UniProtKB/TrEMBL annotation:
Domain of life according to the entry: Eukaryota
Keywords of the record: Apoplast, Cell wall, Cell wall biogenesis/degradation, Disulfide bond, Glycoprotein, Glycosidase, Hydrolase, Secreted, Signal, Transferase
Similarity comment: Belongs to the glycosyl hydrolase 16 family.
GO terms, molecular function: hydrolase activity, hydrolyzing O-glycosyl compounds; xyloglucan:xyloglucosyl transferase activity
Annotated function: Catalyzes xyloglucan endohydrolysis (XEH) and/or endotransglycosylation (XET). Cleaves and religates xyloglucan polymers, an essential constituent of the primary cell wall, and thereby participates in cell wall construction of growing tissues.
UniProt xrefs under InterPro entries: Beta-glucanase-like, Beta-glucanase/XTH, Beta_glucanase, ConA-like_dom_sf, GH16_AS, XET_C, XTH
Catalytic residues as annotated in Swiss-Prot or TrEMBL: 96, 100
Protein name listed in UniProt: Xyloglucan endotransglucosylase/hydrolase
Its EC number(s): 2.4.1.207
Stretch forming the signal peptide: 1-19
Localization, UniProt: Secreted, Cell wall; Secreted, Extracellular space, Apoplast
Length: 275
């Protein structure tokens, strides 16, 4: 009995873990050896030194999906560094859905920076502090993108929604398939306190670690596409999700473009009346 059970168990483990393999899902996009896939494909390590950052790009292009990843961010003095997990198409009218982490001096809080681009136009930043130290442990960061909505979550807690308001004339990313990217790069000219705090290269190389990649998604295979199990495809923010967003905004929000009347003297972007 025992001898039968063990191989069966091992088989299911192998199957479950290979579903999230970085080898199977990503290619090195830049940075050469600074982007490393380790532990049989289970771990991605991205590094940044003075010469270069590093990044990976998904093998597939997705048109909608629910993407989860665990990340452990650059520890210590990470000022000036930006660690990312984002979706993007290409070209001047590209769409993009961003999660970026802006590093900070030791002991100072990281900022979770989010943005949504439609047809080449972004300027929809919302920023949050986290309620934990993202350099101590792995935490799960998620993007849900379906025809109804885009939802950003941290450890399963929704922090931001960008609704599909096309019926009100507001563009929504829905026709351009996107690649998924992970990257670590230097942005000392703006990342930390608006560029006031520069990168301390004596701490280089900086390293961030990713694991437990999971995607339920529609994969573009020209000329058609195939979708994995699809309950996420019509998932919308429920009452508890709305509560979570109110909680995150109340306690952790650093910046919201929808309240920045100085930046938009002509009037706030139209979606701000609804989101
Ligand atoms: C870094 O720490 C300072 C001081 O606590 C804070 O004002 C800032 O928002 C933090 N984050 C970034 C990315 O600058």
């Amino acid at each position: 009995m025992e001898s039968l059970l063990v191989p069966l168990l091992m088989l299911s483990l192998v199957w479950a873990t290979s579903a999230g393999s970085f080898y199977e899902n990503f290619d090195e996009a830049w940075g050469g050896d600074l982007a490393k896939i380790l532990n049989n494909g289970q771990v991605l390590s991205l590094s940044l030194n003075r010469a270069s950052g590093s990044g990976v790009k998904s093998k597939s292009q997705y048109l909608y999906g629910k993407f989860d990843i665990q990340m452990k961010l650059v520890p210590g003095n990470s000022a000036g560094t930006v660690t990312t997990f984002y979706l993007s198409s290409l070209g001047s009218t590209h769409d993009e859905i961003d999660i970026e982490f802006l590093g900070n001096l030791s002991g100072q809080p990281y900022i979770l920076h989010t943005n949504v681009y439609t047809q080449g136009k972004g300027n929809r930043e919302q920023q949050f502090y986290l309620w934990f130290d993202p350099t101590k442990d792995f935490h799960t960061y998620s993007i849900l993108w379906n025809p109804l909505t885009i939802i950003f979550s941290v450890d399963g807690i929704a922090v931001r929604q960008f609704k599909n308001l096309e019926s009100r004339g507001i563009p929504f990313p829905r026709s351009q398939a996107m690649w998924l990217f992970g990257s670590l790069w230097d942005a000392e000219d703006w990342a930390t306190r608006g560029g006031l705090v520069k990168t301390d290269w004596s701490n280089a190389p900086f390293t961030a670690t990713y694991r437990h990649f999971a995607a339920q998604a529609c994969v573009r295979k020209q000329p058609s596409q195939t979708c994995s199990s699809s309950s996420w495809l019509n998932q919308d923010l429920d009452i508890s999700g709305q509560k979570q967003i109110r909680w995150a905004q109340k306690h952790y929000m650093v910046y919201n473009y929808c309240t920045d009347t100085k930046r938009f003297p002509q009037g706030l972007p139209p979606e701000c009346s609804f989101n």
